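Structure ticket #2291
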Amino acid sequence: MTHNRHPFRGGLQVQLGLSAFLLLPCLQAHGLGCVRFVVVDPATRQPITGGCVVVENTPSGNVPQTLFTSLFKPGSTSVFNLTTWSLDPMKTEEEATLISIPVGASITLQPQTQGQVPVKEIFIKVTATRIIPQRANPTSPGTTLNNSKIEQKAGVGGSINRVIEGTTGVASDSAGQQHVRGEHADLTYVVDGVPLPDTLSGRQGSVVVPSTIQRLEILTGGFAPEFGGQTAAVLNISTLPGASKSHTDLGFEVGNYRTTNGGLTTIGALGKYASYVIDLGVTRSLNYIEPQQPDNQTAHNAGSSQSYFTKLRYNPGKRDTLTLTLSRNPDTLQISNRTGLPLSFASAGQGFGFLGLRNADGSRPDVTADNGNALGAQTLPLPSQQAAGQDITQREVSEFATLSWRRQLANATSGTFALTLLHAGQDLHNGNPAVNLLALPVDNSIEFNPTSTRNIHHVQLNGNLTHKIGSHEFKVGFVADDQNGEETYNLIPGSQLALNELAALSPGLAPEGVMQMGAAGSPVLDVNNNPIYTPTSGISPTLRVHRSGFYRAAYAQDTWGLSRRLTLNYGLRADWYKQAQNIGQSLVNVNTLSPRLNFSYAADRVTTARMSYNRLFNTPPLAQGAIVGQPIQPELLDQYDLSVERRIGEGQTFSLAYYVKQISNQVDTGLLIPGSQIGLYSAVNLQIGGVHGIEAAYEITPRRGVGFNLALNYSYSIARPNGLDNTGANVPNFNDHDQRNTVGFDAGYTWKSGASASLTINHGSGLASSPIAPSTLRVPRTRVDLRFGTGLRLLRGKGGLNFTVENLFDDRTVINFQSAFSGTRFQQGRRVSVSFSGSF
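Resolution: structure written out below.
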């Protein structure tokens, strides 16, 4: 684009597109320390609602900053300090230089020094955008991460779970699971203002990959009525914006366990009114997920994932934006094999036989005088899963397409309408040795020969309308999601003990047969307390499940600035979930009206207190594997939040929060066959759930993005269910993912050259699923990561090198042990990698 350069008195130069108009007061160079921007319509020159300003100073190494316009002052941003390169809450609007900038304009500020004491010149690029992705309500507490922080946490080819890990209120588990505030993984993805439908239960891969994210808000409470569906946390995602000039970033990483990761992102313009973003990524490793033993971590544990992302944005006029987003994330992984545990685990079972309950010498430590004569109690030396040739492979895909239309109807009114198509699939296949169902061995380390398919499809329409009048911002919206899913299950048991378990759990999955009865007419039990089942057919049936239904929601809310200090967000959300299935389970048909009330009070310029009550409605996953017991009901909960946040110094923030959740029909996820590890998961309802916790966080943000940075958080929580589950069994004393104490520590330093170093420590006091029998004590674990980067200046601003050590001390502590929900998993060993990043 051609620009004109116009000098202004006082040494300020402004560079604009020929079609842009800029209203600027006369400035003195020394007066450019603090600025405040007002985004205006280029035609009417009036402030607009819903905009943002991006401030860049690339030569200095400062991280680009995005300034969002106020909810209550159309077009106006907060005061930005160019010296500290951050928002300055200590400055009043009158103390800052006001700069009006039209939508679509890109300006360059250059303080000059004629006639003054010479100072170092700075070039600051400022870009204004009309319609920005949906951002959280000011009454919502949470954590916000910018693009550079996301890249640091995820690395090349990393998953969204790596980004969430270590943030306040998050307890890490195996299989990439991140449990937020005592719930399983009930996360809603809101991508550029459009909420995505829910995906598969027990999913391993990513829904949205980190390399496509410009800004991420992790919201954990104080939810405005516009948020629903899954509310353990809301991931409010702004994806990479387009650009007027083409730009490409790439990265490549290699490490031990034959780890290779690669990524490429390119953005640019398509003519005058359109732009594009394309992101491609791939990752491979021989140690893909947490293994079942601490020593041999690559036993049938290879995996790979790919990601394909495209966003096309078109602005047909000054008030409209059309966006097409396409995303596809397939992955393939081997289900890791047991090779046997060290002798120190002999009191609990060294991982041989069904569910890994047998030792290497063939004995079972759980045999007593009461069950010593039962089937399976005998000493039976067996080969491990690896030695026996177990070969199970899982393939997954998550893909969605969203077409959204945003229109600025008037200066104070805007609307959005979007269509989303989502598909998620998960296939499980095996190359295990064949078995004869009519002549099964008593026990076998290979539990099942599974073949399974799961596919879900969503067609979702959603829209909203926002109108600002005075100190009120009203918003109404709806969600209409039609769902259908197909599942098939064929589980061939590898032993008599496995067949007995299967027949007791789900007779429809077992071959035809009869239960063995004793002389007294009661069933004969095996060592696992299951009735002995004798097959009369050599064929295992295939169970086919069809589910269909819908989710509907509508909401109305108001964000009201009652005063300069007090903000109130309130409203109602109506939710309706309906699902039918073909396996004889009853119809699920639940609707409710949920009030939301959220307060934010600015006690002074540096202290903000928040308080909220939310009635929440969480939908269950569609392809859920719930083929036993009653169908899965939506989760209903009352959540109470109280928090205070205070800036205690320049760039320093401390926050403290307390929350309570009272849950009905809590939705959790566990293994379809409890304790087995064949890659199949199932949703489960827990009659009553209760979670409460305390969170504290302290952050240091450096001036201009250069210097020392710190993020330290501590969480104390108790997640304890009660009553029965949907199969009629008693719930456990604690949720399997319950963890009493969680600490996240992330410290780093960034130099002006762009070079950086960081240290990350994640500590957990132990999940409820971690005790090793006969002990009931939870097993704590800690992981320490180191990262070093040269920045792009190493190769003259075009490229740099990064060095990463994950799990510095090679801590291979147990994560879960013989858990009905998670099986047995150990922390992955030290991973050392080197990566190259380039920008062209």
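Closing remark: The longest strand covers residues 448-469.
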